[in-house]
Amino acid sequence: MSVILKDLNDYIAPSQACIKPVEVKKTSTDNNNVIKIDNSGEYYEVSQEGVETKLQPASITLEDCLACSGCITSAESVLITMQSQEELYNILRNNKQAIIDGKSEKIIVVSIAPQSRASFATKFGLSPLKVAKRLTYFFKSLGVHYVFDTSFSQDFSLLESAREFVERYRKFQEFQENHGTSSESKLTKNNRIKRENTSSEDATQHKRSSDICLPILASSCPGWICYAEKTHGFVLPYISKTKSPQQIMGSIVKDYLASKLGVKPNNIYHVGVMMCYDKKLEASRLDFFSEEYQTRDVDCVLTTGEIVKMFEEQNFNINESSEMPLDSFVKTSQEGQLLRSSGSASGGFLEFILEYSARELFGITGIDVEKEHGVVVKIGRNKDFKEISLEADGKPLLKFASAYGFRNIQNLVRKIKSGNSPYHYIEVMACPSGCINGGGQLKPNESLSIKDWINEVNNTYRSIDSLSPEKNETVLNLYSEWLGGKDSPKCKTMLRTQYHAVETLTNPLAVKW
Amino acid sequence: MPELINANPTIYTPSKVSHRIITEKEEQEDFEDTIDSQEVFDLIRSISDPEHPLTLEELNVTQLDHIKVDDTNAYISIEFTPTIPHCSMATLIGLCIRVRLLRSLPERFKVDIMVRKGTHQSEQAVNKQLNDKERVAAALENNHLLEVVNQCLSTAHKRGNVSR
Amino acid sequence: MTTRLYQIAELKGHTDRVWSVAWSPTGNVLASCGSDKTVRLWVSNSDTEWICTNVLEGTHKRTIRNVAWNPDGRQLATASFDSLIGVWEQEEEGGDYESVATLEGHENEAKSVSWAKSGTLLATCGRDKSVWIWEVGTDNDFECLSVLQEHTQDVKMVMWHPIKEILASASYDDTIKIWKEDEDDWYCSDTLEGHESTIWSIDFDKTGEYLVSGSDDKTLKFWRCYRPDNREGIITDRNEPKWKCICTMSGYHQRCIYSVSWSKVHGRIASCGGDNTVRIFEQEESTVSGSTIDTTNFSMIASVTSAHGVVDVNCVQWYPTEKHSNWLATAGDDGIVRIWQLTEE
């Protein structure tokens, strides 16, 4: 376990010991028993007669973890045990038994992130398309019914994020006009709020309702969300309310697909294959749990690395594997080629939102952010901070930025707190280099440096053609067929979510010092 | 109240060791006591457990035999026994003992507080933390924690004369 | 000839434990800080007469654990248990010090601050196991350049190399780490293992080729930096210099060592700790074929027991310049700052 934890590229190391108080059941009522620890750290209760009973270790659930401010980090050790390939194997076994018993089996759906696919492709020297077809074969031969990709749901995420941005930008403008300050002066004001009085100014500043908070901060990175909820409650109103690609896929599978197949959501078992351990945490959020059906939108998340472990366990050789055609909820061209969205390998949020809002807000078309066409790009102090602005006559109309990694998140949080952020939108990711370098991704062979490896995976990711989400016919059709139009109430429940500041620990017995 | 770490602790009869008889001379304020293990035990035996209305002596957490005092060299070492080996209260109990002694002993004493060998899963970690004065100092600036410590110490003055 | 330490002044004013002292780069001012949440600045009229000229307070809500001057002596940085880093500046000569920035970022107790020689970088560390590197911008605008999280425990102290932009950090995880910058970020270039408990304090010699560390394991260790293809044949990897322990001094301090200071003027090393003592060490010299060379041996040349009565000595600092290079300042749990003079008779 420690090996896995050490290799994580997450931005905060897991805390050493969980301090959440838990209940321990004693096995006997005999008060003269003694407790002893053996060499391996197991403990036993020894009765007066010398009988040893092994005591059960206390267990902590993911929900406990999310609700606790004891440690800032996601407790990866909990994640790894709660959502593991063992769980998937169990479901598969139960299904086989159900068929024998003549009972109905669960529908099993696997959704693969394009970043994971790129990691497999680079590691095994295959094209992303071959990887997609071979993973489809692999999972289906195990008994999985559908294999999708989250590039597909990412298009919903992009469209919805862009619409949200335009909405909020307009409300912000309106608010500024009514209150006599131009947006520009508000966003770029130079008077630093100083020390002692920050708390009172914070309070007034953050009373503003979230629909006029700019910049909007991207929401698809669960590590960042978890950190913000646990330590920077004031920043939550700025975070985009659009669900991540993983969770929108969850809505599609547990709502649309369930009704299409005529099954209850809890009769579908949905597995995400992701680049990041924190995606497990995201899947466990109560916001994505249906009380009615007692089921999660995504039941289990496995990382790229955990899938490779499954290959080994199943004696599966991806380099010599058969292939199977792709299922419908995979972003492909009519000719069956894989497609992606333009922009960064962290999802292309910044690029799409900027292109969309340039058109919607200023009537500017024809810009291509990925090719740096029609925008001004400035690399920051380090490669993980980039500033991209849309200008007209030398004056900035929109200022966007991408901030990856903990150090850049720090500066960003401080700037927002002091009202010094000049940006309208920031693509925030907890990992340096973004999602392509997620903690769950495959590692390079010894000979290659991490930097070169990330470049290679990035290139693989970008080796497939891009298509604007606005041209994804399947997605556009689902907007009307499934959601009932772009402004329907169902859009809100299926595509958007909310955040909750975690209260600081008040149980003094659990204070870590 | 959250769930207890150790819901059913073993309770021991308070020790039969006689309590110190304080002489008239000793009661005078300027009297510089020589400190012995009985005195140290008396100072800490009636500290309350953070979770139970019981004293450390009643829970056998502190015992006279596990206290060593070298008055000449102003050195004291104390070993305590957590009620269960994974007890997450161990550092808190240790902290209470430390604070009690910080407040009651002449400042010339250097005190080491340790978990008794083999009685706690993370013995070394607990010991290291309890004997790091910076960690202790910072802990005592945390009001939540200080409140609990003070609560535990509110019975410490009873020096073993606990009536149930 | 014997070498002895004499107390020459006693600076009273703090109302609680004093954690740290720091001489300004010229030695004209001594700053001290502690549990009473204040920084006090002291100047001497004569060798024995000292006055407290400034009390810096209000910013920190909890203990001020450490204080450091920037290289031009115009600013002070403070690290506090309230998790904040304070930056203070004197408004005008002889005037008050104003808090010009507070740096948020550490999750809990901040424990040490250090300014790089250039004055453009500030390093901080704390119980959250992290080391932060900040860039000092214009107009007191500090930007976080890196958050280094490779220590597995509480980081007790950070100290910049006296010449280069190389940082050392000492931790409760019993290791010292050396940090350097590559094109885009900082990385750990070496981990110094050998101490058996928390390392509380580190200091470089004036060349930055040697490092001394003081630990809860009651020893001082001396480390030397070996470059790739060094004459001694010490193996280095990844083309990085390798730090090796060249000498361990045990049996001197009886309890935890809280502070070490390596004089940049005369090369003597001072240490102090929980055994109430201050001790002075010197590198032994030997003559090989007519020329004097430094050996890897160190010896104790002076000590004071009960330097602050019966309580711990938390910090020791050599005077920084030639003028009074044999002066030392110490800070104690008794709330007092003392100035000592090393004399040879």
From TrEMBL, chain A:
Pfam families: Fe_hyd_lg_C, Fe_hyd_SSU. Residues 193-204 have a biased composition (Basic and acidic residues). The keyword Iron-sulfur applies. Residues 180-204 are annotated as: Disordered. Residues 180-190 have a biased composition (Polar residues). Residues 447-503 form the Iron hydrogenase small subunit domain. The keyword Iron applies. Keywords: 4Fe-4S, Iron, Iron-sulfur, Metal-binding. InterPro entries: Cytosolic_Fe-S_CAF, Fe_hydrogenase, Fe_hydrogenase_lsu_C, Fe_hydrogenase_ssu. One of its GO terms (molecular function) is 4 iron, 4 sulfur cluster binding. Transmembrane segments: none annotated. Belongs to the NARF family. This is Cytosolic Fe-S cluster assembly factor narfl. It comes from Gigaspora rosea.
Automatic annotation (TrEMBL), chain B:
One of its GO terms (biological process) is protein maturation. InterPro entries: FSCA_dom_sf, MIP18, MIP18-like. Residues 38-113 form the MIP18 family-like domain. One of its GO terms (cellular component) is iron-sulfur cluster assembly complex. The keyword Iron does not apply. Pfam families: FeS_assembly_P. Keywords: Chromosome partition. It comes from the Eukaryota. The keyword Ribosomal protein does not apply. Belongs to the MIP18 family. PANTHER family: CYTOSOLIC IRON-SULFUR ASSEMBLY COMPONENT 2B, CYTOSOLIC IRON-SULFUR ASSEMBLY COMPONENT 2B-RELATED. This is MIP18 family-like domain-containing protein. It comes from Gigaspora rosea. The lineage of its organism: Eukaryota, Fungi, Fungi incertae sedis, Mucoromycota, Glomeromycotina.
Automatic annotation (TrEMBL), chain C:
Belongs to the WD repeat CIA1 family. It comes from the Eukaryota. GO terms for biological process: iron-sulfur cluster assembly. This is Probable cytosolic iron-sulfur protein assembly protein 1. SUPFAM superfamilies: WD40 repeat-like (SSF50978). InterPro entries: CIAO1/Cia1 (IPR028608), WD40/YVTN_repeat-like_dom_sf (IPR015943), WD40_PAC1 (IPR020472), WD40_repeat_CS (IPR019775), WD40_repeat_dom_sf (IPR036322), WD40_rpt (IPR001680). GO terms for cellular component: cytosolic [4Fe-4S] assembly targeting complex. Keywords: Repeat, WD repeat. WD repeats lie at residues 11-42, 57-89, 103-136, 148-180, 192-223, 313-345. Essential component of the cytosolic iron-sulfur (Fe/S) protein assembly machinery. Required for the maturation of extramitochondrial Fe/S proteins. The lineage of its organism: Eukaryota, Fungi, Fungi incertae sedis, Mucoromycota, Glomeromycotina. SMART domains: WD40.
